[in-house]
Amino acid sequence: MKVRVNGEEVEAEVEPRLLLAHFIREKAGLTGTHVGCVSGKCGCCTVIVDGEPVKSCMMFSVQANGSDVLTIEGLGKDGTMHPIQEAFWESDALECGFCTPGMIMAAYALLNKNPTPTEQEIRRGMVGNLCRCTGYLNIIKAVQSASEKIRGVK
Amino acid sequence: MLFPARFEYHAPASVKEAAHLLHEYNEDVRVLAGGQSLIPMMKLRVLRPKHVIDINQIPELSYVKKTNGGLKIGALTRESLIERSETILDACPVLAEASGEIADMQIRSRGTLVGSLCNADPSADYAPVALALDAKMEAFSTKGSRTIEAKDFFAGSFSTSLEPDELVTEVEFPELGKDTVASFAKLSRSFGDFAIVNVASLLRFSDDGICKDARIALGAVASTVRRAREAEKILVGKKLDERVVRDASENVTGVCEATSDIRGSKEYKTEMAMVMTKISLTRVLEEARSRRLLK
User: Fold this and answer.
1) Residues B186, B96: contact at Cβ < 8 Å?
2) What is the DSSP string of B11-47?
3) Shortest CB distance from B6 goes to which of A17, A39, A125?
4) Model pLDDT for residues A45-59, shown as the tens digit of each residue
5) Where are the extended beta strands (E) located within B91-243?
C-alpha cells in the first residue's frame, strides 16, 4: 500500500490486520503517534486522514491506501512550532506528554471545523482524548489560546 | 497493545460484488464500514472473522437523499456528516441531535449510521430514533433486496433480523411534518459515553392542540431498544401538560428490563428511564409551545 504521510509517500507491504497506528510508527517511522489503550477510548493515536480526525488504532492501514495522513510531526515547520503546539507549551498543557500528540491533532481538527469554539464546545469536542496527568483545564486553555493565535488576535 | 487475528481482506467496488462475497463466505465474515465497533472487537479477539468485506471502496453508498416525505441515507454516510447535514437538520433534526451525542469527533468521522444500526448495541443512540420514527432498512443480498421496518429489525443484544448474507445498503427516515416535534435525550457519565439510558420521543398535534400521536422509544434498558406503548397511550388524545407528561414518564418503567452493570444498577437505570423520558417529552412540549402547536 502507498500513503502520503505529512506530504511524503510511504510504500509498504502490509498484512490487512496492521493498524494504521502501527503503520505510522513502524513503517513510516514516526513515533509521535502513540498507542495508549486497547479499546479506542484514549485518543493518543489521533491523526488526520484526508482532512478528518481519526483514531489510527481503529483503522486498518490498508484503508488509508492512497490517502493523505497528517501526524504530529507534520505540524511544525523547520523547527518552528505550529500555533497549537506553541499554545500547549505556553499554557502548560502537558505533563508526561503521552496524550499530547493526540490532543494537539484533535485540537487541530476541532479548530479547523470551528475556529472560535466556546469552552463547552472545546470540552465536548475533545471528549475522544483522555489525559491522566493534567486534569484538562490547561489543555482547554491551550485550545482557546491556539484559537486566538491562529486568528491573529493575540 | 492488541491487534486482530489474521483475516482475508476484500474491498469490493460494488454492492453486488459485496453481496456475492457475503454469500460466498456466509457465516465467517464481517462487513467493515466505519469499523468503530468492529475493529475494537477484532483487536480484543472477541470477534475473529476469517473474511472482512470492506465497503469503503463503494463511495456511491454515501448519500442523504430527500424523497417524497422521507430521507434516504446510504450505508457509508458518516455520523459526522449526519450531525451537520442541512437536509437532515431541516427534515428530521432529531436524527442529527442523536448523532452529535455519539462517542467523539474521531469516532464519528468514520462511524456510520447504518453500521451502528446493524451492530445493534442495546445502548446505541440511533436505535431509539429509528424505532420511534419507524425507520426502514433496505437489506440487499444475492437474492435481491427487501425492506425491514425498525420494529422488526432489532432482534436482541447485538442481534438483528438480517440473514447472514444480507447487508443493509440504505435506511429511510420520515420527514417530520410541521405538526410534529421530536427530541432525543441521553444520560451518560461523560458526554459521548455509552448511554445509561437514552430516549427518543415524538409528538404530533392536531390543529386544536391535542396530541394525536405519540412515540417513546427507550434504549439501554433492555436487551434491545423498546417502544413504551402504554406510556404513549397516556398521551394520545389529550391536551398535554406537565401532569400528563409525568404520568406517561412514570409508566415507561414497565418496559424496562435493565441489568445492573458498570453504568448503573437496575434500579438506577429504571428510575433514570423515567427521568430522561420526562426530560425528552418536556423538550418536545417546549418546542411545540414555541411553534404555537399547543394552543
Assistant:
1) no
2) --SSHHHHHHHHHHHGGGEEEESS-TTHHHHHHTTS-
3) A17
4) 999 999 999 999 999
5) 136-141, 144-149, 154-156, 159-160, 167-174, 180-187, 197-205, 211-219, 226-227
Taking contacts as CB-CB distances below 8 angstroms, the residues of chain B near A126 are 104-105
Which chain B residues contact residue A54 at CB under 8 A? 106, 109-110
- CB contact (8 A) between residue A18 and residue B3: yes
Q: What confidence score (pLDDT) does residue A154 get?
A: 60
Mutation site, B102, B105, B188, interface A, largest A CB count within 10 A: B105
Judged by a CB distance cut-off of 8 A, whether residue A22 touches chain B is yes
Q: Distance (Å) from the C-alpha of residue B246 to the closest C-alpha of chain A?
A: 30
Q: What is the ipTM of this complex?
A: 0.97
Residues in contact with B140: Cβ distance below 8 Å, sequence separation at least 6, in sequence order: B15, B19, B166, B167, B168, B169
Query: Does B236 score more than 80 pLDDT?
Result: yes
Locate B247 and state its grid cell: 404520568
Helix A83-90 and helix A137-151, axial crossing angle in degrees, nearest 10: 140
The answer to whether the CB atoms of A128 and B52 lie below 8 A apart is no
> φ, ψ for residue B223 (rounded to 5)?
-70, -20
Please give the DSSP secondary-structure letter assigned to residue B221: S
Q: How far apart are CA B252 and CA B227, in angstroms?
A: 9
Residues of chain B neighbouring A46 (CB-CB closer than 8 A): 106
pLDDT tens-digit readout, B38-56: 999 999 999 999 999 999 9
Joined together, the cell numbers standing for residue B199 give: 430516549
- Where residue A68 falls (left for φ over 0; alpha for ψ -120 to 50; beta otherwise) is beta
Pick the residue of B1, B106, B189 with the most A CBs within 10 A to test the interface with A by mutation: B106
B270 neighbors B253 (Cβ within 8 angstroms) = yes
**pLDDT of the residue at B77:** 98
CA gap B43, B2 in Å, rounded: 6
Is B46's Cβ below 8 Å from some Cβ in A?
Answer: no
**pLDDT tier for residue B1 given thresholds of 50, 70 and 90:** low
What does the block give as the cell for A44?
A: 493518543
Each residue of A104-127: pLDDT tens digit?
A: 999 999 999 999 999 999 999 999
Q: Which residue of A has its CA nearest to B55?
A: A63
Query: What pLDDT was estimated at residue B27?
Result: 79
Least Cα separation, residue A116 to chain B (angstroms): 17
Nearest CA in chain B to A128: B104
Q: Looking at chain A, how many residues does it have?
A: 154
